[in-house]
Design a protein that fits this description.
With 390 residues, the chain is of the alpha/beta class. Helices cover 37% and strands 16% of the residues. The protein has helices at 82-88, 107-120, 133-145, 159-167, 179-193, 205-220, 237-252, 272-279, 305-314, 324-338, 344-358, 382-389; strands at residues 4-7, 13-14, 30-33, 78-80, 92-97, 125-129, 148-154, 171-175, 196-197, 228-232, 261-267, 318-322, 367-372. A six-stranded mixed beta sheet has the order 4-5-13-10-11-12, with helices on both faces. A four-stranded parallel beta sheet has the order 8-7-6-9, with helices on both faces. The chain has a three-stranded antiparallel beta sheet with strand order 2-1-3. Helix 3 (133-145) runs parallel beside helix 4. The structure holds pyridoxal-5'-phosphate. Pyridoxal-5'-phosphate (PLP) is lined by residues 105, 107, 133, 200, 232-238, 296, 343, 345, 373-374.
Length: 390
């Protein structure tokens, strides 16, 4: 394999043999490094997500012989959103619509990459703790690989998401508590059964899958960077992955200019990164009693905290917390204004644009990307929605 692993924190290096987890020296997440990859400028025009994210193969952890486990993830649209922009008092707003991925969220990208590498290393049994959508994606990609997966999810996860996990054939275990509690149960099960733990940042390849978000955005903008990224943040793989994409594209000489200002968007009911950012800290303390309807954001103690906070600082971005009512309202508005099916997490990204515009941190000149990270229908109760209509 023409890559190695480097600790995101202490810089320890390791060969990517077997099923790597976290840094053996300090326990922080690994990052994949590709010292031997050559990205000729002449290849840039031919590089695109061609029906899936694996079109960006030269930036991904795949050897010439390896075949990815794919359901056609990635290659999602980046829509210019003029009505949404007007609604927000901005001019240049794009929606990266991740709802159209297989399993209806961007978790498909990370799990396609993680399960591809793990199966190539011989894994046949998986386990994952989830706030919801990672469970659906793990179930689908395990099925695609002919492998089995056990999913630990909070009992309060939206019903439709839980039903999707079961439909794709996973062994679903419901627990009281949040994703942190599910993580403990998953680790115990991994030890007992030998199943591989697919938890966020507990293996290095989910980040590589999420990296394709950044590659696709740069390609869609004619190999340029936007000015602002508003990312609804749970465990943080998307934020870290996109930053890694931008850094790698600049190192390759494919895109020049300063990195987009990256903002972490969370719920006021679970905002460990926002709280740490506001306090000027470089690590985040776990949030006690996390609650938000945006289940993907209900991650009280992300292990990528230090790296995320560094990214927000280094890109001159920031962090914003949005109340649930506001993200719900903005998701509904964006859905009906643009015809894109916004999840509450996506609504948080939209709401953050308004908050930052009001604070003067983003202006009408800025090219702003809002993320619809998952499909709204996964969270909706049709009966309730129709009743509201009266
Ligand atoms: C998981 C998830 C998030 C958070 O993503 P991370 O990369 O873990 O920060 C946001 N939105 C949705 C819909 C999710 O499923």
């Amino acid at each position: 394999m023409d890559w190695f692993l480097e600790c995101s924190d202490c810089g320890t290096q390791a060969e990517p043999i077997g099923l790597p987890t976290v840094c053996t020296a300090c326990g922080r997440p690994w990052l994949v490094r590709y010292p031997d990859r050559i990205h000729a400028l002449a290849d840039r025009g031919q590089t695109a997500a061609n029906g899936s994210m694996w079109g960006f193969r030269s930036f991904l952890p795949l050897t010439e012989r390896d075949k990815p486990i794919t359901l056609g993830e990635g290659d999602t649209p980046l829509f210019k959103a003029p009505r949404l922009a007007k609604h927000l008092g901005l001019d240049r707003v794009w929606i990266k619509d991740e709802a159209v991925n297989p399993t209806s969220s961007f978790k498909a990208r990370g799990l396609s990459a993680a399960i591809t590498r793990a199966v190539l290393a011989g894994a046949t049994k998986f386990v994952v703790p989830t706030a919801g959508n990672a469970g659906v994606a793990s179930a689908a990609y395990a099925a695609r690989a002919g492998a089995s997966v056990r999913v630990y999810a909070p009992r309060t996860t939206p019903k439709t998401i839980l039903a999707q996990i079961v439909a794709f054939g996973a062994d679903l275990v419901l627990l009281e508590g949040h994703i942190g509690d599910c993580g403990k149960a998953a680790r115990a099960w991994a030890e007992e059964s030998g199943a591989m733990d697919l938890s966020t940042l507990k293996e290095p390849y989910r980040i590589e899958g999420k990296k394709t978000l950044g590659l696709e955005i740069a390609a869609a903008l004619g190999w340029g960077f936007p000015d602002v990224i508003l990312y609804p943040t749970g465990g943080g793989t998307g934020l870290i992955g996109m930053w890694k994409a931008f850094v790698e594209l600049r190192a390759a000489g494919w895109v020049s200019g300063s990195l987009p200002r990256m903002y972490s968007v969370q719920s006021t009911g679970c905002a460990p990164i926002v709280r740490a950012w506001d306090a000027g800290n470089d690590t985040a303390e776990a949030w006690v009693d996390p609650w938000t309807i945006a289940s993907g954001l209900r991650v009280p103690g992300p292990i990528g905290d230090k790296l995320m906070l560094r990214i927000l600082r280094e890109t001159s971005g920031g962090a914003v917390a949005i109340p649930d009512e506001e993200m719900t309202r903005e998701a509904a508005a964006a859905t009906s204004l643009e015809g894109v099916d916004f999840s509450p997490e996506g609504g948080a990204s939209v709401a953050a644009a308004r908050v930052l515009a009001q604070k003067g941190e983003i202006s009408a000149r800025d090219r702003v990307i809002v993320f619809n990270t998952g499909a709204g229908w996964l969270y909706r109760d049709p009966a309730e929605l129709l009743a509201e209509r009266g």
